[in-house]
């Protein structure tokens, strides 16, 4: 009888060990599936005095267009959250009489890239472009 209880104890230990080993194999799989989630960024374009129009391209895919008109305070703003981004291209063109334009990219509520210009000749539209690759802010931080 003692031998039987001893064997039952070994069986329980063996099953527990098997479960533990199975969990160890599952952890890397679960970590990989989490890392495959797309990254969300926020695109913001702001212009003073007059509005703008433009487009953005995510991961070299289709072109999405945007535009904004100035509010009562003379500020035009466009905001868009974009999912599954690896690479982003943005181009914005001001309307006549705009005095500045800025394109900003946020990741995790932190500005990671921006481009801005003050317009010398407001009678001509100004084009501002920006390209952003996920992680480039991390590369710049380690380079400095």
Give the helices and strands, then pairings.
Blueprint: H1 2-35, E1 41-48, E2 52-58, E3 63-68, E4 75-82, E5 87-94, E6 100-107, E7 110-118, E8 127-133, H2 136-143
Key terms:
144 residues, Immunoglobulin-like, 2 domains, 2 helices, 29% helix
Structure characterization notes:
- The chain is an alpha+beta fold.
- The protein folds into 2 domains: 1-37; 41-143, Immunoglobulin-like.
- The protein is 29% helix and 42% strand.
- It contains 2 helices and 8 strands, in the order H-E-E-E-E-E-E-E-E-H.
- It has helices at residues 2-35, 136-143; strands at 41-48, 52-58, 63-68, 75-82, 87-94, 100-107, 110-118, 127-133.
- The strands form 2 sheets. Strands 4-1-6-7 form a 4-stranded antiparallel sheet, with no helix packed on it.
- Strand 6 (100-107) and strand 7 (110-118) form a beta hairpin.
- It is rod-shaped and about 90 Å long.
Oligomer class: single chain
Please identify the structural class as seen in this structure.
alpha+beta
Shape: rod-shaped
- CA(first)-CA(last) distance: 71 Å
Helix and strand element order: HEEEEEEEEH
The number of strands is 8
CATH structural architecture of the largest domain? Sandwich
Supply the number of helical segments.
Answer: 2
How would you write the strand order of the largest sheet? 4-1-6-7
Total domains, how many?
2
CATH first level of the largest domain: which class? Mainly Beta
Main sheet characteristics: 4 strands, antiparallel
Give the % helix. 25-40%
Mean pLDDT: 83
CATH topology of the largest domain: Immunoglobulin-like
Query: What portion of the residues fall into strands of 2 or more residues?
Result: 35-45%
Parts with pLDDT < 50 across at least 5 consecutive residues = 29-36
